[in-house]
Amino acid sequence: MSENFEVKLDGKTYLPDPSVKENSWIGDYEQTYEKFLKYPSAYWEMIADELEWFQRWDTVLQWEHPYAKWFTNAKLNITHNCLDRHVFDGRRNKVAMIWLGDNGEEMIFTYRQLYREVMRFANGLKSLGVEKGDTVCIYMPLVPEQIIAMLACARIGAVHTVVFGGFGSNALRSRIRDAQAKIVITADAGMRRGKRVELKAIVDEAVVNSSSVEKIVVLRRMSPPMELYSEIEVDFHEIMESAESECEAEVMDSEDPLFILYTSGTTGPAKGIVHTCGGYMVGTYYTTKCMFDLKDNDVMWCTADPGWITGHSYIVYGPLSMGGTILISESTPDYPDPGAWWRIIEEFDVTIFYTAPTAIRMFMKFGEEWPNRYNLSSLRILGSVGEPLNPEAFEWYYSVIGKEKCPIVDTWWQTETGMHMLTTAVGEPMKPGFAGRPVPGVVADVVDEDGEPVPPGTGGFLVIKEPWPSMMRTVHQNDERYRQYWNTIGNYYTAGDLAVKDEDGYIMILGRSDDVLIVAGHNIGSAEVESALVSHESVAEAAVIGKPDPLKGDSIKAFIILRVGFKASDKLKLDLVYHVRMNLGPIAIPSEIEFVDSLPKTRSGKIMRRVIKARELGLDLGDVSTLEE
Prior knowledge:
By secondary structure, the chain is of the alpha/beta class. 31% of the residues lie in helices and 24% in strands. The chain contains 19 helices and 33 strands. α4 packs parallel to α11 (309-321). The longest helix has 17 residues, at 111-127.
């Protein structure tokens, strides 16, 4: 970024009922954050002491830029904290997990049942030769067995790498090979919108010439059961049936790897982000407890898939380490109708609901009629993740879904960070468009390219100034790429996002730093133009890119998905141009507008502007394996 740029900051502030703060785990944000700043190691030690360790740490943090070791020489097993301690502290018959299938099928697991299933499958993996330090690839639909497999790997010290069940064979193959997976766990098929989605055939193709793979474990869901080839293929439940029922948790060092999770880079192949046992456990436990304010009688529904970091942290490890009840569903938000998710919330009395802005905007397109058909009064906390929650979506989420009583926890974080980094703590004033302030335990700021803080209202780069427990430790087989995160701007972790801070320290994410548009010498964040477009009554979603222009540097092209009931026309294009002009000024006016039916997105809901731009300019698309559309 060649220069800083001013960002217009205004809008409403919403104040939650004072009882929300009084009854929250986090309490008063300012006091808590001040306590962290004064005694950072003691702060994290206090949180870690709420969990059970086989051996206590020597030091909380050992930091040699850019490498961190957290809770050095501590011994633990994350599944002991997610399962054993609840089974033996009075929660054994509490519901741990509720699963809803695409066809309405239900399964419920208490902590005792989940504990037993995990131990039996862990012994099943051992019978296949899986040992501590081996890598296991999990490529499954969103079924209970997917979570059981993750926990079983962690139980015996195997490193899991979960690959989302929507990926094709090339993406799966590259991950299996990069991680050198010894075992692949899959299912015959998934279900989506009432239709069968083949998975096993994709695995068959992916493992060709993948010499590290010794066995394929297949969950056979469909009838009649598919035939298995006995030399390398085994049935998921059969290896459990022959396994012993007790499996002691492997003693892990705090810095032993827990999992590798692949995320698309802006260039080149997907990056294998490595997270370790101790710090990741502490970070996800803490943020689930304090940012979502999870209580013992809550039902938490995070609509992500465990194939993504959101699912790892806020479906599996965070809520289960807290002893919470999680709901998972194979269903899609608008099948069999746009009331599907609201029906689930009503039926299961969901109290904490965590979803993506792209889903919220899709529901806005369908209107208030669908959620208004259902009783959503059980909801207590609403969360958002994946990309900036624009003010219009915030307003709709707050009023239509939350009935103006639920705090909105708009979270900014990354696969690399492992846990929430910015949000508005429950009970604190909420500002539409702003993610919020740094989580206590996180030191974040908005700086220029030299690492100097920029004034409020001035755009800059979002950085994290100090290490945190759940930070990634490296990029698998590419440590140089890891070091780039910490060596781009000063000695700070550079997130790659543009942001702006207001006078109160609230941070708004403007978009990726490689999504900046330079129009006639002015820097414009893509998210700002998109937010202006989405604020028009006709627009459900928008993505903008910069196209090379000999005079302006960049000209802006907008891709628009319309809400139901609106039709594309030249008149509407003129209306949208005028709308942007009135919101942002003439410099931000799109030169072109194209109406489209869909936009390329990652599975977590982020719009992939680089893919749109590459297609528009006829360039190579690079790695697009994490795209939904």
